[in-house]
Write a structure and sequence with these properties.
This protein is an all-alpha fold. Among the domains are: 108 residues, no CATH class; 82 residues, no CATH class. It is built from 22 helices and no strands. Helix 9 packs antiparallel against helix 10 and helix 18 runs parallel beside helix 20. It starts with 7 loop residues before the first helix and ends in a 6-residue tail after the last helix.
């Protein structure tokens, strides 16, 4: 059984004990994705989808798919989904899917339906859309999950919804409801590929207790391409909360013109989320001369004493005692560095800060 709070081994690629690594899962994603694609292609030509409900049947299928005797959207559920949509900046992932894959306009106004008439309106918007039948089944499956697992499972069986599409919807449904373990279990499956990377990362970072760890795993296993400044910044923020050393390695993969600003953001993130423990890590980062100049310059420009303490230790590490003394004379407030690690350097920094002339 997976751990509720992942260990360091989990961060490096273990979902559960004795499970494959991130690298193995990545290869498996490629192999299984090809298998699913081949199966779907063959299925179209061997009649496996002969029983799928066609577009014409969808037009008349409301009473079959959504019996009027069952209507789950009571006030509590409506309020809950409204709250979730607000937390997600006004759009559920369902809204984005409905608009993006089925061109259902104003999906955020159609779902959840407040009464049976609104359900009929939502259903007919999906049935009348220009999307292919498989995408319509995906949206209807999402809605049916509100009716309970049995109703949703029966629908999957009746339309022969491919497993990859089922897992995609299961992941999106869980993500809309902040069920993050279920989200990870489905959206990291080899056959699943979902857009909206920025929104996924932001949701995990803002609302999941294990968000930084999950982001690291999600990006690694799914081979996400972080091709916008927003996704890069979110990923860097997440890494800074898991491992500053890993964050530095990530910055080193960026184009040279972006690295200086990214190092400055890394310092900001690190000292904002855990100033004591992260200050110790920053003080002991192995850096190139260019990186040293960027980070030391930025530490010197920050007004907070923690940055000055980090800078003192970094200068001492490099043997630049005179520079360390200059920094020390600018500090007149008491502040500690670290959480007890490397006490010798901490003591030296504090002594130098208190009386620079007496250290050496």
């Amino acid at each position: 059984m997976c751990a509720e709070n992942p260990s360091w081994e989990y961060f490096q690629g273990y979902y559960c004990s004795n499970q494959p690594t991130i690298q193995q899962l990545t290869v498996r994603r490629l192999d299984q994705a090809g298998t699913h694609l081949l199966f779907s292609f063959l299925a179209l030509y061997t009649g496996l989808f002969e029983n799928i409900i066609m577009d014409e049947e969808l037009e008349d299928g409301l009473s079959v798919i959504f019996p009027s005797s069952d209507f789950p959207y009571d006030k509590q559920l409506l309020n809950y989904l409204s709250t979730q949509r607000n937390k997600l900046d006004g759009y559920l992932f369902f809204d984005l899917l409905a608009t993006g894959i089925a061109a259902v306009s104003d999906a955020q106004d159609l779902y959840p339906p407040g009464d049976p008439t609104a359900l009929q309106d939502l259903y007919h918007h999906i049935a009348a859309s220009q999307a292919d039948i498989l995408k319509k089944h995906c949206l209807l499956y999402y809605i049916l999950k509100d009716y309970g697992p049995q109703r949703a499972s029966d629908y999957v069986d009746s339309v022969l919804l491919p497993d990859a599409h089922k897992k995609l919807i299961d992941g999106v449904y869980a993500l809309d409801r902040f069920q993050f373990q279920e989200t990870m279990r489905n959206l990291t499956h080899p056959s699943v590929r979902l857009q909206f990377t920025e929104k996924i990362l932001r949701t995990l970072l803002n609302y999941c207790d294990n968000g930084p760890q999950y982001i690291r795993i999600y990006v690694a296993v799914t081979n996400q391409i972080l091709d916008t400044r927003e996704t890069t910044t979110l990923y860097l923020d997440a890494l800074s909360r898991v491992s500053i050393f890993s964050a530095v390695e990530f910055v080193r993969t960026m184009p040279p013109e972006e690295r200086a600003e990214s190092y400055r953001m890394l310092i900001d993130f690190s000292l904002a989320h855990g100033p004591d423990s992260n200050a110790y890590q920053i003080a002991n980062l192995p850096l190139t001369e260019e990186e040293e100049m960027i980070i030391n310059s930025y530490l010197a420009s920050r007004p907070d004493p923690t940055s000055k303490n980090v800078l003192i230790v970094r200068e001492l590490h490099r043997g630049h005692v005179d520079n360390a003394k200059k920094v020390a004379t600018s500090i007149n407030r008491q502040i500690s560095l670290g959480t007890g690690k490397d006490k010798q350097w901490v003591a030296m920094a504090q002594k130098l800060r208190a009386n620079p002339g007496q250290l050496l």
